[in-house]
Write a structure and sequence with these properties.
Rossmann fold; 8 helices; 2 domains; five-stranded parallel β-sheet; DNA-binding; alpha/beta; four-stranded antiparallel β-sheet; two-component regulatory system; Arc Repressor Mutant, subunit A
Length: 233
């Protein structure tokens, strides 16, 4: 049998799974490898930081509560040396944990116990969006609020707003759909890229952080009770 000269070689994403529970790491590895990912493991934050210094990864799944170095501290250390998409796991679902994680620039947050199938859907969606990148080159302006799509930056009265990558994507999607009522389901599907599972706390936390970053323009994001949000400028 002769192989085609033009066979397509599929890039295999490399994922680092960081959790002090061996059974959790094994479960994620099983599903990630089934999806075609290459998987490496770290049992705590210290080991994860060391591995990121010496190797390149396309994605990190990081537990928060770990010995030696917790997930938040490990995330901060890794962010100093590399920009890697990251999803955090936690046994707690408190708002403080979600806000702190998103402020550090993580892409998503999942509470234990979790569905491994849903977890991989979230990982797939984040990697697809990261590889797609920003194809447009424009500035969207509403008075002193400027969204620079080429640089993926937001300016409030000339000062750069501190937004996480997901916060930027959320604002961009809201602004491009100015005046349209957007349901929570629609926002999560379009911005996060996976089907809605009934937990809208992640969205509401990002909206809270986004309003804080927009300062006097926070009222541009209007809450539609029982529905979702609308951008009005």
């Amino acid at each position: 049998m002769v192989k085609s000269k033009h066979a397509v070689v599929k890039y295999m994403y490399k994922i680092l799974v960081v959790d002090d529970e061996e059974n959790i790491r094994a479960l994620i590895r099983k599903y990630a490898e089934f999806e075609g990912y290459e998987v490496e493991e770290a049992k705590d934050g210290m080991e994860a930081v060391a591995m990121c210094r010496n190797h390149d990864y396309d994605f990190i799944i990081m537990d928060i509560m770990m010995p030696e170095l917790d997930g938040f501290s490990a995330c901060s250390k890794i962010r100093e040396i590399k920009d890697i998409p990251m999803l955090m796991l936690s046994a707690r679902g408190e708002e403080y944990d979600r806000i702190h994680g998103f402020e550090l620039g993580i892409d998503d947050y999942v509470v234990k116990p979790f569905s491994p199938k849903e977890l991989m859907m979230r990982v797939n969606a984040i990697l697809q969006r990261s590889s797609r990148g920003g194809a447009e080159n424009e500035k969207i302006t509403f008075g002193g609020l400027v969204i620079d799509t080429s640089a993926m930056l937001v300016y409030v009265d000339g000062e750069k707003a501190e937004l996480s990558p997901k916060g930027y994507e959320l604002l961009y999607y809201l602004a491009r759909n100015k005046g349209i009522a957007l349901t929570r389901e629609k926002l999560i599907t379009e911005v996060w890229g996976y089907d809605f599972y009934g937990d809208d706390r992640t969205l509401d936390t990002h909206i809270k952080l986004l309003r804080s970053a927009l300062k006097e323009y926070r009222d541009y994001i209007v809450t539609l009770r029982g529905v979702g949000y609308r951008f009005e400028a």
